[in-house]
Amino acid sequence: MRKTFLSQNPSVMWFIAFLGLFTLAVAIGSEATGTGLISTSMVKTLGKTLCLCLIAIAMDVVWGYCGILSLGHFAFFGIGGYAIGMWLMYARTEGIVMTSLEGHVIPPTPQEVQDAIGNQIFGVVGSSDFPWLWAFSDSLFLQLLMVVIVPGLLALVFGWLAFRSRVTGVYLSILTQAMTLALSLWLFQNDSGLRGNNGLSGLQNIPGYEDTSQATTSLVFFMGSALALALGYILFAWVVSGKMGSVVQGIRDNEARVRFLGYRVERYKLFIFTLTAVIAGIAGALYYPQAGIINPAEIAPIASIYLAVWVAIGGRGRLYGAVIGAAFVSLLSSWFTGGGAPAINLGFYTILWTDWWLVLLGVSFVCVTLFFPKGIGGLFDYLVRKPS
Amino acid sequence: MNDTLLEVSGVSKSFDGFKAINNLSIQIAEPELRAVIGPNGAGKTTFMDIITGKTRPDSGHVVWGERNISLLGMSEADIANEGVGRKFQKPTVFEAQTVRQNLAMALKNPRGPLAVLLHRKTPSNAARIEGIAAEIGLTESLTRIAGELSHGQKQWLEIGMLLAQEPRLLLVDEPAAGMTVEEREKTTDILKRAAKTRAVVVVEHDMEFVRRLDCKVTVLHEGSVLAEGSLDHVTSNPKVIEVYLGRGHA
Q1: ipTM of the complex
Q2: Does the beta carbon of A235 lie under 8 angstroms from any beta carbon of chain B?
Q3: Are A19 and A224 in contact (CB under 8 A)?
Q4: CATH topology for B3-249?
Q5: Domain extent listing, chain A
């Protein structure tokens, strides 16, 4: 069975090998192991990029393979980030509060401790009460469960309503945009219970590992992200190969035909939509501790649109294409917007890439769609000739 | 004697005031080969849409099988799993996938997502696929991408997919459209063989093709049955000549 799976999916082995070598190279070059060739902030950037690659392959499965152009998957990514962020913030604040109360003659009551933590976390939005959302925030295990359950449940309910009513195509895309916009607007409110536009911060400090340097923490998260990407890649490669892959791609190419073959198309769409949402949540939970901060702007509609652009540029319908697209475009994006690209002086006008990067990205997207529908990943077709 | 498999009675359906199907009643036995003919707009495709659950009629009954269950209100997938297979007018196969994958997807097996996800290839399934491929003459092409097939081969593949579903009733919409003479003969043979063990309803424009099928013919006109019987019988019917043949030959 494993033999046939790998022989049918040669890209899995190549990908795992490449990812393994890449991880090893970064580990050797990182400051944590002493060579210091790669700065800690670079390790974080690379780790975050791996998380973006993970959500990109999820997007590729739901869009490239199943034909559902979801423009809301970043909402699930953000929810995963918030879920883990709540524990990170609670546990760290608890540690700070306990330290500050240590010297007191009379030991503080649990209520006093709670109030102090609440004050620390929610003072910024003028409150000190714990909202119901934070009921499990003291438990890492339960919040990790939330990383999976909340995106999964949201996708399940949303998908069930949408697919059952046979909402397809651009209408579904608009609905998913509305979903992520609504979520982000709700989070922006101060009384949402998640600190409004301040979001959750200080997530790079891992409670219990205060003495561990950021160099080490970032390397651990980088490796964790690499592992998650590898496992996600294998999982999705398995899902989109074999008979499941046939049905899912059949739904993309001719939904009605699949239905007349006796498959309940809605259930398949729901399965794919929910599974990819869960993986997106996991990717987000790994991303935000490396980013250090999450706020509602992260799940603005544009983020999910970028995700679709990455996958389109990388090449739809091939998992490694999504990885290439996400890594290439997001790294390029931080290079251009971070001032890495030199400004071009035309004499009468100076092109500043911080302003013009979006235009360049937009033009590339249009060109890829028009002239290279297979994306960057399509180049591999020229390298690898399938034996006929 | 043959048992009635499908009974359509008093079915009507109008779209924006246009009566596509008007008090239509048809019975199909098992096994049986039946040709449904009629001019454009006679309601042939709507008739198939109603049976397969794509369209809900305004009134009437569609009753299926020994247990006399109503197909109205069932989803397309449920109706397909009851044993109704449908071939579309245009060949609709999954062009990005191989012939074998197309047939494997259609093969009668559990249809739930979990069963499909955990599905493994078995020798018996492989043998069934080989058998169907032989039946439709695509044994050599099993590993080819369906999009590369010729028009006729795609039509056969779709018929093969229907056979793989092991339906009790096969609805075939204009199978001979765009086929060469040899391809037509082969298609006729496949359908005739299929009709030995199940009900096959062929909707067709082409009189020559219907003649070759050599079966009972139902003539539809303006959404209801105009005549029924052997081809010679219906073609000698003055009403049929007027509405169907009359236009071209008058």
Answers
A1: 0.87
A2: no
A3: no
A4: Rossmann fold (3.40.50)
A5: 2-383
